Amino acid sequence: MSFVQSDRGAEKSEKFIAPSKREVLIPPVGLAGVLSRPVDAGALVIFAHGSGSSRFSPRNVLVADALNRRGIATLLFDLLLPGEDEDRRNVFDVRLLAQRLVDAVRWAESESDVEGLSIGLFGASTGAAAALIAAASLEKRIGAVVSRGGRPDLADGALDLVKTPTLLIVGGEDVGVIELNQSALDRLQGEKALAIVPGATHLFPEPGALEEVVELATEWFERCLLSERGERGRKPRSR
After folding, report:
1. Which of 1, 108, 116, 237 lies 20 to 30 Å from 179, alpha-carbon distance?
2. 239 in a structural domain
3. How far is CA 139 from the centre of its chain?
4. What pLDDT does residue 64 have?
């Protein structure tokens, strides 16, 4: 089992040009989303939110903004249509959510402003299971996965098929979920790491906890998705 920590001293760009943003509808069912693309974007991260959330999730928006500042495009979108989320069976149908995520990846690969970019997936809660199932299905088309407070155990048999570099981030006080993530980590087949944020609970509301998630996630995506462009070569330190 490996653990990672962020480098809070990493240099950041002194100038930041706001990314271009556009509202999108992802086929085949027309899922609403927002695509944000920084100038000279080097990769794209697609988000899969947890149950009861949407593309407006403030926690995911915070992570997406940080990625944009590091030169990574982001796609925040609704996994369910209006009305579908009223049926709780849909909310927890990770196979359905994973298929919607696969649809989003295929759509992005054909969009002129992001086609050709390395793609990563960021999943939260049940969205993490959907991200892992999608990664198992799409294989080398996905360059990295990050799970925040996720339920990777819900991916079930797909865990044994995931070869994508995967980082699982869990709060140190998220009792029960830590153990589920540790068990899932053992089954993943590719590069993998578990990061535990001390003192944090499931939604990381504690002071500084979500900021730590942002640093861990951006570091993982930078290394896995941008390294081929020479924008990052250092591996995360172990502890």
Report:
1. 237
2. no
3. 16
4. 96
Report the distance separating Cα 220 and Cα 41, nearest Å. 16
Specify the CATH number for the domain of residue 179.
3.40.50.1820
Q: Is residue 214 domain-resident? A: yes
The segments of the chain whose pLDDT lies below 70 read 1-14, 52, 228-239
C-beta separation of 176 from 152 below 8 A: no
Which distant-in-sequence residues (6+ apart) come within 8 Å of 129 by Cβ?
Answer: 94, 97, 98, 123, 150, 151, 152, 153, 154, 155
pTM of the model: 0.88
Structural domain boundaries enclosing 141: 20-229
What is the model's pLDDT at position 66? 96
Q: Cis link prior to 38 (omega < 30° from 0)?
A: no
Instruction: For the chain, give the number of residues.
Output: 239
Rounded CA-CA distance 169/76 in Å is 19
Which token pair is 49? Answer: 């939110």
Enumerate residues 6+ apart whose C-beta is below 8 A from 198. 172
Task: Please report which residue ranges of 92-237 form alpha helices under DSSP H.
Answer: 94-109, 126-138, 177-187, 209-226
